[in-house]
Design goal:
Low-confidence stretches: none
Distance between the termini: 16 Å
Number of domains: 3
Radius of gyration: 22 Å
Structural class: alpha+beta
Number of helices: 17
CATH superfamily of the largest domain: FAD-linked oxidases, C-terminal domain
Mean pLDDT: 93
Helix content: 25-40%
Number of strands: 18
Length: about 475
Amino acid sequence: MGTTSYTVEKIPRPLPDDFLDVLRAQFGTACSTNASVLQLHGADESPYTPIEPDAVIFARSVDDVVWLAKYCHQHHIPLIARGAGSSLEGQLLPVEGGISLDMMGMNRILKIHADDMQATVEPGVTREALNAQLHDTGLFFPVDPGADASFGGMVATRASGTNAVRYGTMRENVVNLKVVLADGRVINTGHRARKSSAGYDLTRLFVGSEGTLGIVVEVTVRLYPRPEEQMSAICNFDTIDDAVRTVIDIVQMGIPMSRVELMDVNTVRAVNQYSHLDMRVSPLLLMEFAGDPAVLQKQVATVQEITQAHHGQDFDWAQGAENSDRLWEARHKVYFAAIQLRPGCRSISTDVCVPISRLADCINDTAADLESAPFPYIIVGHVGDGNFHVQMLLNHDDPTEWAACEQINQRVVERAISMGGTCTGEHGVGLHKRDFLLMEYGAETLQLMNEIKAVLDSRNILNPGKILP
């Protein structure tokens, strides 16, 4: 870490003398070395200083990706697949130079299998684009990481989001992948059957691999019926502990929530200001339930009893899609709302996930730790599955704040791992959290990961330097 940002030394690999001539002959205007294009593709939403690639290729087809993989494999050239660019842990930085492969032009919705409740898309399709196409089918795709991420990126980082407590993450919702391997071979990891006992589960191997094992060029995902009725509720609490223990009881009672989000006091204050709401400024839960109206009423009564047992107050229901959407839109804008608490700041975010039984302890200890931080912060969480986020708002030019931020991040991660949790529930590993994998998995498991990487990418061209320390 530098004095006022995270920095990584770029150690570029040697390139063939005719590198750019060959790429321009093959891709024409889809090959760019324009300064602004290189700068854009050398950065993501992480706190790292940008590292520019040597060239950017805008993929238009599977054939483009295959040709490029073969060329890069032959010449040992790093190849970094890039989607919407919303990753948070430095996943997209070309730390060894090479080519940034922009996949956003591969954005066709290839097939909607409505009867099977599945869709097949290219990696540049975004979740909002798919759901817009599904509008009249009665179906939707539920994984919602907040940003309008691309399917390739969501597969790469095993994305999650507000709906995960009911519908799961990308791990549970990817049916099949078409992948271009490092040497240009093309494989399918599965098929469209709803289950199989045949062979190794290669789909799960590539989901979450952050572009280090192969380049995803086609994704088949599960779809779900749109719920008949939606009801959202806000409930305030005196303490974060009361709010989290309410969630634990609701989960353990088996009540099927669609979403449940925790906001601490700082988050509520920021959201009120940014989204022009008047929520009571205290720790709160934002919950959503969906399904048959008669069943929902029973769930409402049970949830109210549980919240009252934990000193919940001002239980307020927002019935109907329009009212629910207003609340959830405000939740999705938390990142921007928080920045307004300290104009001109640099926002640094971290996340962890722990077993639901340890969630209250982990959040309480983290909140106590943050009280002495020299900068503002917020805590939010998809607490129904044990995942929460800390967003820290730093003075970009203050090395003391950067140092404190990194120390807090390390303590949060170490605390989560000691409780049987993980260093990241959503953001992924990238550069920033790769050194925690040894602590989380141990040397033998990490060695196996290295061996898998060596088999699938023997020349280490696919997004080198990420995940594995």
